[in-house]
Structures are given as structure tokens and as C-alpha cells.
Write a structure and sequence with these properties.
mainly beta, 257 residues, Tachylectin-2, Chain A, single chain, globular
Length: 257
């Protein structure tokens, strides 16, 4: 991972996770899962960055009766959109910014089901969603499903080969797709073999059409450097911001004096 990482502080009674940076009108914004320990249900918060690159105070921008996380934010068709995970609510909902970055309105439901960490890609003249789907009481991290559509609003069609992969090492996305300088398409993927948040790798997208979906075996992301925690959970970048999160052990307070 190298050096130069700065830790976004939290007040201690909740944590931030699943960071997604976004550039808007020359400014940087960071959208995060904001999990208050007291409620056990996360909301989505935004962290604006000032002109010097320093983070401002996080503030809540989206809350639902169910848990929210993995807030992928992107611009398309003249609007800004958010696609947060809401597997606890049983549906994947697309939100449109009505007053960026603080106000969001539910636009449409893209996919029904217990879909986790849906990640958007435009490729080959189509839109694609990569996500994990939970089979009954099984894992939320080992079954990769893919959907395609001609337009963001859908309809979204399940891939004929779903589930395209069953593998705890690489089925669950861990950040937005990236295209490197050679034009290769890479997807951060979570390694769940050591538990949730146990590690992260990068898989190359080798084939994607209506006949096949194929990813390379992941190359592990090494946590060495000045990143202070032993494991990595997600990886994203936009503009000058590259962001990661990870699992860390924390001491629980008993409340006794």
C-alpha cells in the first residue's frame, strides 16, 4: 500500500466503512457507511473536503429503516446517482441527488433480493452490475451474480450463467471497477476466507458478455506500509483521493466508572 495514508477520525461511538470518493464541481466528497453502535443500523454520511484537501465534519445524507452501506456515487445522464447496498431491505434501490450532496430521492428499484455490494460497470455498449446474492441462510460473500441493462433505470436482466462464480475468495466486490493505463479492467474483490473483511485482492475482468463472465484469480493487496491496520476491506479512488478501509480490534467500554 505504500505510505501517505491519513486516518479519518470518528467519535468512538460509531465507525466509518465502505468509503467511496466522488469529484463534483472541483471539490472532493467522500461517502461512507456510518454505523452508530447504539442503533446497530448504518446510515450514509458524506465527508466534504475543503480547498486545502482537509476533511470536514461528516454529516448524514441518507437514512432508511434498514441498514445501508457501500454507497457507490457516480454521474450519468446529467444527474448524480447513488447505489447503496440495502440487502437488509431486500431490494437494490437507485437514488438520485436532488440537492447534492445532502438530499437524495429514491428513483427506482433495480433488483429485488438480498443483493450485497452491487458494483456498476459500463462495458460493450451495456451496463452491468456485479454483486453477491445470498442463497437462503448461506453466506453473503461467496456467490457472484451479474445483471445487465441498456439503461440505468433498467430493466435489469439476470445473466444466463448466474451464479457466475461461487468462491469465498473473490465473489464479493470490494470497490468500484477501475481501468488501468493499459485499458485492463480491474475489480477489487473481498477475500472472505479469513472472515468478513479478512483481505482484499484485484481481479482482472477477462470476459464479459451474455455468454460468459470470467475474472482472473485475485492478486492480493499487501497491507504493508504506513496503513496502521492489519487487514483491508475496500479500495476506491477518484481524483486525487485514494481511500481504503479495514478491520481493527477495538476495546469495548463497559460503561462502568
Amino acid at each position: 500500500l505504500g505510505s501517505g495514508w491519513s486516518v479519518l477520525p470518528d467519535p468512538g461511538d460509531h465507525f466509518y466503512a465502505d468509503p467511496f470518493p466522488f469529484q463534483w464541481q472541483g471539490r472532493s466528497f467522500l461517502f461512507v457507511e456510518d454505523y452508530p453502535h447504539a442503533t446497530g443500523k448504518a446510515v450514509i454520511s458524506v465527508v466534504p473536503f475543503d480547498a486545502s484537501g482537509a476533511p470536514e465534519t461528516p454529516r448524514v445524507v441518507l437514512e432508511e429503516p434498514h441498514h445501508l452501506s457501500y454507497p457507490q456515487v457516480f454521474e450519468r445522464d446529467g444527474a448524480v446517482w447513488m447505489l447503496p447496498e440495502a440487502s437488509a431491505g431486500g431490494r437494490l434501490t437507485l437514488y438520485r441527488a436532488t440537492g447534492f450532496p445532502d438530499r437524495w430521492a429514491a428513483e427506482t428499484v433495480l433488483v429485488e433480493g438480498e443483493i450485497s455490494d452491487a458494483t456498476l460497470l459500463e462495458h460493450g455498449g451495456q451496463l452491468w452490475l456485479f454483486a453477491t446474492d445470498r442463497d437462503g441462510y448461506g453466506s453473503t460473500s461467496d456467490t457472484l451474480v451479474v445483471f445487465s441493462a441498456q439503461a440505468l433505470s433498467g430493466p435489469w436482466t439476470p445473466h444466463p450463467m448466474n451464479p457466475v462464480l461461487i468462491d469465498l475468495r473473490m465473489a464479493r466486490p470490494g470497490g468500484a471497477f477501475v481501468r488501468n493505463r493499459e485499458g485492463r479492467i480491474l475489480l477489487p474483490v473481498q477475500d472472505g476466507t479469513l472472515g468478513y473483511g479478512g483481505g482484499l485482492g484485484l481481479s482482472e475482468l477477462l470476459d464479459l458478455d451474455q455468454q460468459a463472465v470470467r475474472l482472473s484469480q485475485p492478486r492480493p493487496v499487501d497491507p504493508e506500509g504506513d496503513w496502521p491496520y492489519p487487514k483491508i476491506h475496500t479500495l476506491n479512488r477518484a481524483g486525487m483521493l485514494e481511500v481504503i478501509d479495514g478491520i481493527a480490534a477495538v476495546r469495548k467500554h463497559s460503561g462502568k466508572q
